[in-house]
Structures are given as structure tokens and as C-alpha cells.
Amino acid sequence: MQTAEKIHSAQFLAQQLQEITVLLEKQQLERSLVHRGPTTNHELVEAMLQNQHQARLQEKFSSLHPADTASILESLPLDQRKTVWDAIKSDYDGQVLLEVSDAVRQTLISGMAAEEIASVASTLDTDELADLAADLPKRAMLKILRSLNSEERKHLNAILSYQDSQVGALMDFGMITIRTDLTLKAIIAYIRKLGKLPSHTDKLFVVDQNDKVLGILPLQRLLTHLPSQLVAEVMVTDFIRFQVGQEAAEAARAFERYDLISAPVVDSEGKLQGRLCVDNILDFIREKTDEDLLSQAGVGEQEDLFASVWKSARNRWGWLLINIVTAFASTRIIGVFEDIILQLVALASLMPIIAAMGGNTGNQTSMLIIRSLALGQITPANIRRLIKKELTLAILNGIFIGLILGLLSLLLYHDRALSAVMAIAMFINLLVAVIVGLSIPLLRHKFGKDPAVGTSVILTAITDSMGFFIFLGLAQLFLI
């Protein structure tokens, strides 16, 4: 198997994790044996063992990509993670810190001195430093800033001045700019003199003397046109560009739609500020997806798998406390109808069906709306038609599912009135579920909130409570 294939193989990564875990366990056993042995030259033996352990770990990680190293660190308990990080951190020049999750990065940085952090981050580009800035101690950040030249400091401050959701926060400065009056031959000579291109370079940016972007020169055109031609003759003037304050989600959709690799980032006057690359867009999409999944589950923030119990508990308490309130509300609704449940025991077995179907239907609708909002497919012009379509679908599903469950309850209990109540309650609850599934994400989006946060938790609580109330209320009206 080729090395490149191994890097992308989940099986290979799992094997590496297992081997490293076994190595760490052996090292722990060796330490315990030394401590139990005679005290003569105890410190010397322990120091020699420590050096051997570090050498073994460094050798083990030397052939791994920083992303694979980050994955392994995230999979190790805190004590083993610290042992590995202490052994390898000096060899990776900050790349692993970029690859690990925010929660794990904090655990790695917490055990490092400011000078050590500054040293590890010394080889990172300014856009990479910006990714780490929020997690770095102030003292370490000051040391890093002092080590930067004026241009690098300017670039770093520019990125940090934008919110995480804006294009400006994702841009980098590894780009080549050219003028319209240059020949393609001169540009090729310049690139050869550079020796290498910045990563993800698929085009050069054409600017005027004021750095205003006039067009782009794809590398394909640079190589396929006559060397004597001028840039002005072969450049592309109809191209995708992004504003520094533009939403990163919009840029992500454009990268997907137009299969972009890189694109210029400009200010309100059209002056070049940086470039946006596909790797940063992919990182943004992954982080946004992770946040949405956690938010839907009611988890406050990204959590280290091996974080302390206390920290994990605090991260999850918020929505759990809300669940307690909603659960009590549901039980109080059932308590109001205790008498009718005692008179007709069949109601107790049918109630969960009404609640479960309502929750599933509401979640289907809310997930569709959240996804459509994320893709920018919902606009003021089409929202009425969307709501009308979803309500019509709710009526159709309510009738269909209601009839099926009504027939099933009739076969089970041979009670026509009960089956009718079951069918009507299912119809009403599915309609309520769709209305709630539409309303929660749309209203949160309207008021500038993340439509995914807590939607599933709130939706389930409402559909459960309403399902119990509708079903038991109808039973009290028509069965007693």
C-alpha cells in the first residue's frame, strides 16, 4: 500500500492508534517496574527510560501526517495524550494544533509555557495563526506578535477584525498578483524565479496600480497561449470575487456551485485584500456541520471526548434542564386526564404512538427548513409557497397516517369511537407538528439566531405535550 493511501485509510489509522496505545502501556509498565526496584541510580535510570520513550514516540509519529496525528491525539485519554504531546510537539511546528478540535487544542496548550507556544507557532502563516489566536494565552500571543514583521502583523490584525462567519476571517495572503501590461513570458520567468507556487494556486490575480482587481489569469491560459501575448489580451474579466464582510456560508455555496479552488477577496472599493481557498472553505463547512449537529442535540459547544466529567456535565446541563421542564409539563397534561385513562386503559398504550409520530413528522420538516436556510434556498419571495406546500403535505399525511392507525386500533380494540379518536388526534397532531417544525427554525432565522440550535429539543417537547393533550382531550369529549 502506498503511503498516500495509508494516510487516507481509516483502517491504517485505527491500527496506528492501537500500536501507540500498546506502546504507551508498555512504557507505563516500565516506569512502574523502575519505581518498585532498588533506589540506586533511580533518577538516572528513569531519565534514560524517558529519553527512550520519547525517541520511540517520535519515531512512531515521524511518518504520520499532522492530520492523522491530530486524530490519534483526540482518541487518547488525557494522561496518554499529554505523554504523546510532550514527546512530539517540538517536531510539528504548530501543524497539529491547527488540525485538532478546539476542545482538544485547549488541553494541549494548557500544559505549555508561553515561550513554548510561541516557538511552536513560529513557522505558521498569519492566517493559520489567526485560527489559533482565540485559544492562545495573552502572554503567548504577545510574544508571537513581537516576532512578526509589520506586514505579517497587519495581515493578522486584518483577519482577526472579522467575525468567524465572514469571508475576511477565512482569507489568506498566499497569492501572486500581476499587471495587465506584462507578457506571459515575463510571468512564467517570474514564477520560475520564485521556485514554487502558493498552495491551491489555480489562477493569478490581475490588479492595477491601486491594487484594484481587474481580472484573473488562470494557469491554464498562461500555459496554452503564446508567450508574447499580454495579460490584458488573455485575462478573464468575468470572474467570481468575494467581499471581506460577506457571509462565509454564501462563499461556501459559490465554491460548490462553480467548483472553485481559489478566488480573490476584495473590499468595498474592489481592492484586493486576500484570497479564499478551497481548504479553508472545507474547514468552515466541517466546523459548521459539527456545530449544527451538536446544537440540534442540545450540546452547548464542541466537547473533548476525554474532557473532565465536570466540564462535560456543564456543557450538557442547559438543554437537559429545559428537558426537565418540558417533561414535567407533559406529565401534568397526562395528570389532568388521569380519570379517563383509568376508565379506558387502551388510551395509555396508544398515547406514545401519537407523540412519537408527531415528533418524527416535525423533525422531518424542521431538518428540511434548516438545510434550505443553510443553502440560501428560502427567500421572502418563495416562503409563502413553501409554507403552503408543507401544510398541504401535512394534511395529506395526517389523513393517510390517521386512517392507517385508526384501522389498526379498530382491529386491536374493536371500538369504533376509539379508532375515530385515534385517527382525528393523529391528523391534528401531525398538522401541529409541521406548523411547529416550520415556525421554530424560520423564527430563529428571522431574528438572527442559528435555526439549528435546540430545534429538535423544543420540537419534541411541544409535539409530545400537544399529542397527549389532543388525544386525551378528544377521548374525554367523545369516549366518556
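Next protein, fold it too.
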Amino acid sequence: MQNKLKGTGVAMITPFREDDSIDFNALEKLTLHLIKGGVDFLVVMGTTGENPTLSIQEQEAVLNHIIEVSEKKLPIVFGIGGNNTQAIISRIKNTDFSNIDAILSAAPYYNKPTQKGLYEHYKNIASASPVPVILYNVPGRTSVNISAETVVKLAEDFENIVAVKEASGNLSQVMQILKNKPDDFIVLSGDDTYTLPYIALGMQGVISVTANAYPKIFSDMVNESLNKNFDKAKELHYKLLDFTEALFAEGNPGGIKAASEILGICKKHVRLPLAPVSDRTYSLIEDLMKKI
């Protein structure tokens, strides 16, 4: 897993037509775009994939289409999370993992468990999962933070909890995880704009939104950072910085879907309760892409 999850993972969008149906032709185009761009692994049905608005059957259809198109060229990480531990375990037991390399499981949202509750939640997921588990800490969305101590304890106690996607934005917490984690535990950035400095501190990669649009530039930046060629990495980082910040101006994935439409990959359409970005933000993204 050290090799499979190192470098640039992409939190893939789910293309929709204007009637809300899944655009499988656009999904194929996106998958081939990412493979050609040199990314290291694909993350299917994460937050960027709008997984809360897709049925389980739709999620599996998206996963199976990506598996078919990618032809096992890249590892696949599948998002299975939620705030009902037993429902997640049931979902795991009813999932075909033959072409899935790991699962990404976001911290429970809304019910705001304690650190003990988070530990027990992931303990049960780890016990049920036949593939490695990636923790996903994103308190800006879930309203609960998986502390550095809890992440490290989970990493130490469960062999198949192999990584964390860290999107707390808390530099002190990130450093505590990197300082105290087991040697073989992987720490991935969940913030595109922080990826370069996080790798300088010891992270091994990223699960990126920006790379949906610019997989080669972003992957090159990550690889240069991992190889400690920070002058070149900074050049690529700053090339994408304004664009990346614009992507999140009105939330995710509205921004990256606008960029994908400009690139001719898919329509900007998102499912409710999300809405497309404003004309002003769309124009800003388009202008920044012309500069890139």
C-alpha cells in the first residue's frame, strides 16, 4: 500500500447531464484524462463525487464503469462512510471488493462523536473491511475532528488502517501525526493548496480536487516535492494556486465542475442541494485557466 497510495490521488467528480442522470460517456473521458495525466490512484465516490446524492446502485455503477475504463492501470479507492456505523458495516459486507484496493471513510458527520466514539467507529470498520482503510478527517464538513492522538492510536492498533487523508487545516495537528505515526502509516493531504508544504513536512501525497482538471501539472508538482526538488515544485504550485483557490470560492465540487466544462470533459451540472457556481466565479475560473 505504501507504493499504491503514494503521490497523487484524484477525488473524482461524477459527471451529470442536466436531467440529473449520470453521464457515463463523460465519466469515461475523465478517467482516461486522469490516466493520461499520470496520476497515481483514483478515488471514487468521495465528497467531490457527490456521493450523498447518489443511490448505492448509482455509486456502484460509477465504480464499475471506472474499473472497466481504467483496465486496472491504477489503484482504486472507494468511498464508504457515514454516521451510522452499523450501516457502513452492512455496506462493506455487501460490497464486491475484487477490484477495490482500499476504502476511504470520512469521519461521522452531524452526530459529533467523542474521540472514544470515533475510535470505536473505525475499529468496527477496520474489523469488517477486507481491504485497507483510509481515515478521512475533514472537520469543516463533519463538525468533528479526529485528533492526532486518535489517528496515531488507530494506526498502531489496526493493521489494515493504513492511511489518513488529513484536511483539518491544522498545521500543529498534522505535525503531531507525522511525528508520532508508525513508519508504514501513510499521511495524505486533503488540501490542495497545502500539499507542497505538507510533503516538505513528511506527507507522502495527496487526494486532490484540482487534479481533475490538471492531472499532469499537479502530479508533476507532487513528484517534484517528493523528490525534494522544491524550486521546481514551487513553480508548479504557484502556477495552479489562484486557480485552485477559485475552485473552492463557492464550494466543492461546483468549481471543479465548471473547470471540467471549460475543458470539454463534462457539463457543470451538480445535483441538489448543490448549485452551479455563479457566472462571476465561472468567468474567474475561465480567465485563470487561460493563463495556465
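About the second fold: The chain has twelve helices and eight strands.
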